[in-house]
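Morning F.,

Quick status update on the modeling queue. The single chain you submitted on Monday has been processed. Sequence for confirmation:
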Amino acid sequence: MKSLSKREHLLATSMIAGFTMLTSAGIAQAQDQAEETTEVSQIVVTGSRIARQDYKSSSPIVTVDAQDIQATGSVTIDSLMNDLPQFTPSISSTSNNPSNGGQANLDLRSLTPKRTLVLVNGRRLVPSNSDGSADVNLIPAALIRNVETISGGASAAYGSDAIAGVANFILNDQFEGAQIDAQYGVTDRSDGTTQSYTLTVGGNFADDRGNAVISINRSTRDLIFNSAREFSAISGASGTTPMGSVVFDSTNLPDADVVRGYFGDSALSLTGAFGFNNDGTVFSHSKALNFKPSDGIQYTGFYTPGSTYAFNTGALNYLSLPMERWNVYSSAKYTLNDNVEFYGDALFNQYTASQELAATPAASTTGFRAPSTNPFIPADLKAFLDSRANPNASFQLNKRFTDLGGRHAEYDYSVYQLTGGVRGQVPHSSWTYDLYAQYGRVSNIETQTGNVSRSAVQTLLDAADGGASICEGGFNPFGENAVSAECLNYIGRTSRTVTTVEQSVLEGTLQGKAFDLPAGEVLVALGAQYRENSYVYASDPSLARINPRTPHLGADGLPDGGTIGGVEIAGFNAADSVNGSVNSIDLFGEALIPVLANLPFIQSLDLTLGYRYSDYSSIGGTQAYRADIDWEIVNGVRVRGGFNRAVRAPSIGELYSPAGVNFPAIGNASLTSGGGDPCDVTGMYRNGADKDKVRSLCLAQGISSAVIDTYTFENDQTNGWSGGNIDLEEETADTWSLGLVYQSQFQSPWFSRLSASLDYYSIEIENVISSISISDALSGCFNGTGENPNYDASNSYCQQFSRDPNNGNIIDAIENLDNLGVLKTSGVDLQVDWGIDLVDVGGPDWGTIGVNAVVGWLGSREDSVVAGGAMIDRKGTISDDFGNTFPEWKSLVSVSWAHGPFTATTRWRRVGEMTIYGSEDTLDATHYFDLSGSWAINDVVSVRGGVNNLLDQEPRTWNPGVQANTDPSTYDILGRRYFVGLTAKF
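Structure tokens below.
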């Protein structure tokens, strides 16, 4: 059997095989250490292709290991990664709306998951999405040996997608014996149960020339509804209710005296929604006049007499998504001789997850036109309709379809990734080689229930008998009226979509000593890679169907106001099928050059240069390069840093996705923030210094002069269209970093284990692939940050949306992708590690104490919507948009104790104070404390347990929040929870 040194020397495309922690506290940053050993290992650090005789890195690296993962008590890895200051919490187990089908995605440096490259054993994990982002749920948490994260551009080493950095997951592929691991967790409210069971078997064969291991894991997570927590039970205010509502056309309003006399309010606006009580009477959403609430928190949660009425959609949404997962991982290697070692691994994953949203709303462009002849129109509404200038015209009808139940999506994932290769030493030389091929495939079947056929509902509304001749009882939308099973079957739709993602990689690397310089050996790594990614999304025909928009016809066959048609399905977003592929050929090289050594104040000065040329079938050639320094000034003091040019080629989805319907949020109008429709008379724009110019622009956009001074928009979403762009170019990013690393040289037991690092980073991305969101378009159009000082309706931002000619509401927002603005972020990371043996400092022989602190300071996080536009700094802010959470300070501190078979660790997680973007309201800093411990009963059995969120700290809340009145990815929404685990190794 080869020595450890030679075997690790062969791992040219792998990362650190193991990491010696300075303390047992948990998280550690790769730093120099003086190792007293007779055998020097050669290893490859994440971010580099060159094996070297230490594990120092010229880029900041953060490492977590299996003990850190176990201390979280979670069955998925994202829980721990999102606690680190380098990560912005992204899609996770608590992401229901927005959601990504139960996935867990990582976001380094707040640059989004599509710019964070995920590796497994140093090789790409097959992506799960059309934007190229990976789902870390596919990685078996029980098998992770350690995770190494490098932030900042790493495209020269790994290619596209590594603009923000790399997260490299190393799995346990060297195992002898058999091991059983079991873990159980539950919240303090007796819900959200998690379970994980793992069996691992492995051993050597062929006189220790080979090793094989297989591990099988099953893990589950139970669902939690919003209604199970006080902070989220009342959330998701919506103007679309099960009782139904009418919005009168601004060009055909009812007589003001009739409406205002009915409600006894001489100033009531006629442009808002009017709903239907179950006794046939009408109520006004504005001021909630004449509202007669039904029983249940859904109806009364937001009801306050005198305030605008809204339906509580949040109670029956998922707060935490359920999951059931099976993971199988196996690996094997066999050494033929010193020059040839065969290796391979296989990852299989099957998991199901689900999503639950409130019942389907159909409003505005997804709503309906009801004819004035509908037989179910109640008498009070009929009086309003008859007072219009054209009493025979149809009217806008909105409705939430609670009889069909919630919108439920079930996701069934089947994944496998196979790798096989050969590596070894080039005969008669010190050079090594590594050749491997890899194939991965992700299949996701999504089944949706609760969708509504808009054309079917429209048919029932237009029927002379209200649809009674089509299905039993017909359809009465005016109030909550029983709908027969036959009618539910007529209007309801179950949709099924299939997503298939495939990735093929063929790569070869060659590395070794090129020549000698006075300061040492020049090491070189050369390589080539072929990669192909394909993405196929087979949409359900009902979701892909878009009906022609035509005038609504009355009983006489003539247009009677408004249009019908458009997307067929109300419920989950309509989407057309996608089928595309991209391949690339990469050539790359890296050189480690010792410049100076053994001089005063220059123990060593190394320069690392890297270059990669990539030729894409989609965009042609791109270049990435790097230049890093590593300067050891004196023993224990190092300076590191450098420059990286990184690139990201447009993904398949960004290139080829057809225009699809979405429903972007715009917030609610208020006097203190810029949310909602700027033309809403209750909002900031209509009451600011330029209110007259705003009013004129609203008129120019089509809001009727009859309603301009009473116009309100009660929804916090609008409909829009988004799609890809085959003319996209690559993004380019420049990363600068500079750091200082200190490793104590003191012999004192108080300071011998002290180490620290301080790293500055700056990342600037140009040619950013993005779209102008409707929120940005509204802000730009109405001169929110100086983009339209003349309030000109022909301004480019104003062309990104339209208004409904009947009521003036915002419709058809255009959010297509393009190479637009600039994205910048900068900050400082501080890491401190310290440890002592109590007996060495005069205390009793009660073990060791270790402290680890990781602190992140965000210096800036700026973006411009378009190139040359105003840069907006979002540092220290949080918003209703998912992923836009940028605390200025974030930290994770661990204090651990170990003595013989016992360990105990406490963690302090801190998320800094943030201002709600667009307002002056702030959310206080949030502190979470965790406690865990373990006991090795004997050489075979060990047990562990812990309490997370020990003080039961609730999340910070604001309305509406990202989801459930908060940001469930940033804040802990589960509350206090417990876990216990057992490991038995034979």
